[in-house]
Amino acid sequence: MNQKKGRSAREWGSYVWNLIRGSLAPTALMALFWLVLGWVRAAGVQWAILWPLNFLTGALSGLEGSAFGGTLGKAILLVVFNSFFRGIVVRRKGSERRRTHFWEELKKESVSTALARIPQYSNLRLLSGDRTPMMLGCGFLGIGFALGVYPFLTGDGSLVNSMVCVALFLSIGKQISKQRGLLITLLNMVLARKALRTVNRGAIDRVFAGFAVGMAAAVPVAAVRAVPVVGGALWLVLARVLPWAMILAGVVCLGLTFWKMREAQTVSQEAGK
Questions:
Q1: Residue 128: how many CB atoms within 10 A of its CB?
Q2: I need a surface site. Which of 111, 135, 157, 210 has the fewest CB within 10 A?
């Protein structure tokens, strides 16, 4: 028995080591971008040509506004980037075969990402499928929480730092649609507890689907901030007021659902007497 446990420990250690080793290259690359782009911004250089790099890498997150929130956003972006990198790089013998396979996988991954994940058909169908007050409330809560937390994760709510919103949108949406991934694994572990086995899994999925869609909506909300004259005021409404309105709507819908359930239970008990 001890020998079996030893083999299991070695296999686990090998898995963790391979995971770390596979993440070294993309992590170093991202860290290099952060270092160089951060230094360039600190030097006062604000060339328009650098904007796409700042957006894609989230290099400026945390430099203005909330340093902790921006750093957390960078960490999330790094995790998603590592996951994407590991998904398209397959180790094969022979440099030519490796390059060919890499570009084939990159093309396939890019197409699937652009056409399948960005529209998020499954999440939109999930949000609009069941229109009961309970499911609508869960969707409202997810959207409201996403819109409310996005300024924190970006550091300052700016468009240039909103790549973390895109990353969360793609990652969470993919995991919900395929029902696998770190989020789904953790969710299954939590719901497996005896006290939580009666929790409606569909409602939980609706919350996360709403969160993914809310993160997608956060990107145009961030873009509104750059609109001349009215941009600042409009952004305050969309990023500060609207999230609380969505959360309030979600609470009302859930409250209505529980009230109806309790009323039905009371009627059933009276009929039984």
A1: 11
A2: 111
Which pLDDT score is estimated for 82?
A: 83
Q: Is residue 64 left, alpha or beta, with left meaning phi > 0 and alpha meaning psi from -120 to 50?
A: beta
CA dihedral 147, 153, 156, 159 (to 10 degrees): -70
Nearest to 214 by CA among 111, 116, 120, 76: 120
Q: Find out whether 178 and 185 touch, Cβ atoms under 8 Å.
A: no
Cβ atoms of residues 136 and 208 within 8 Å: no
Ordered by start, the domain boundaries in the chain are 2-272
- Two tokens at 271? 């009929």
Residue listed under structure tokens 């969360």: 168
User: How deeply is 39 buried, as exposed, middle or buried, from its count of CB atoms within 10 A (0-12, 13-18, 19+)?
Assistant: exposed
